[in-house]
Amino acid sequence: MNDLELKKSLLSCPGDSIQEHIDTIGMSQAELAERLGRSVPKLNELIRGKAPITKETATRLEYVLSVSASFWINLERQYQDELLEIEQMEKLEQYKEWVSGFPLAAMKKLGIVPDTRDKTEIAESLLKYFRVASPDQWSAIYVGSSLAFKIALRHSAEPQAISVWLRLGELQAEHITVVAFDKKALRDKLDAFKKISYYHSEDWLEQLQALCASCGVALVYTPCIAKAPIYGATRWIKNNSIPLIQITDRGKDYNAFWFTFFHELAHILYHGKKEIFIEGIDSIAPDREKEDEADNFASRMLLSEKERNELFQYSEYDVELVMQLSEKFQKHPGIIVGQIQREYNHLYKDVRLNSLKAKVVFEELTM
């Protein structure tokens, strides 16, 4: 017998106690009905738990059976609580199939759901995580068209995993204090962003996050989740008052990280508050014109046109040349190597050039 069956078997309505009392004192239901001023059918409904004990009825029961009204009111409240719990358990039983579509191993590791095999317990955690009343509401928000989430994942093969990753970013953003968004201040900080990427200090991730917050932008670093092959995402949260940039550690490549950051920054600078941009999932049909605009902006932030022309005038590349150009351009050598390798694929295997690249490692995240 599982917990739900056990609760159902132990469930007792207040009418059972009424029946016990009148049996003890030798009173029939008909007599009790007469003394209460109720019809026999109405009393029968009360005893069978089909009608609730109201405050007025509890007071009448106190007069007739010499048992306090508070006893009957508390008994009714307890019964209703148990009914609600059973009803919720029954619903959660129906949600087991919905639960199975989520990347549970990753979610357990992150502490999003409890480390248990009980899918009803996991279902309850998922509802709270997404702030929805049922899987129907989750589907309406993340798979259909919604006021809360304005991009449908119905064409994606793994909407569950993607929704988990996106929601995780929103929760991370709740722990960041940002000023009111200031687009001019954000534009003025572009050179400062480039300096952070060049100097690559030990706390560069924290510096970048703090600089974004000083312009009103929430920047979060969300680890890559299985079946959610996303590089980054941009959207406005808190009733369109705060722009949120969410970046993954997919690939753990420094050049890719900064290209993604500047790409997402372009969406904030040039595109609307009501749009959501998710990079890395082709099935979520992007606005190609806006994506190209963001790509071009990111490319310019990494290397100016003049720098790019100079970089690609060479026929061969070695560590010494990259370091010279890094100092001249004030660009991290890992970014320069990344740009070279994107142009010349065979150089991805060059061990010497790869030694100049930097890895992006996020702190371990637990909820």
Oligomer: single chain
- Sequence of strands across the biggest β-sheet: 1-3-2-4
Average of pLDDT? 90
From the N-terminal CA to the C-terminal CA, the straight-line distance is 33 Å
Beta-strand content: 5-15%
Number of helices: 20
Q: Based on DSSP secondary structure assignment, what is the total number of beta strands?
A: 4
Report the C-alpha radius of gyration, rounded: 31 Å
Describe it for me?
Helices cover 57% and strands 5% of the residues. The protein has 367 residues and is mainly alpha-helical. A hairpin with a 4-residue loop joins strand 2 and strand 3. The chain is elongated, with a radius of gyration of 31 Å.
What features would you highlight for this structure?
mainly alpha, 367 residues, elongated, 5% strand, single chain, 57% helix, 4-stranded mixed β-sheet, 20 helices
Brief characterization of the structure:
This protein is mainly alpha-helical and 367 residues long. It has helices at 3-10, 14-25, 29-36, 40-47, 55-65, 69-94, 96-100, 104-110, 119-130, 135-142, 159-173, 183-188, 190-199, 204-213, 254-270, 288-302, 305-311, 319-329, 333-343, 351-354; strands at 218-221, 232-237, 242-247, 277-279.
Topology of helices and strands:
Layout: H1 3-10, H2 14-25, H3 29-36, H4 40-47, H5 55-65, H6 69-94, H7 96-100, H8 104-110, H9 119-130, H10 135-142, H11 159-173, H12 183-188, H13 190-199, H14 204-213, E1 218-221, E2 232-237, E3 242-247, H15 254-270, E4 277-279, H16 288-302, H17 305-311, H18 319-329, H19 333-343, H20 351-354
Parallel strand pairs: 1-3
Antiparallel strand pairs: 2-3, 2-4
Helix pairs in contact: 3-4, 5-6, 6-9, 13-14, 15-16, 15-19
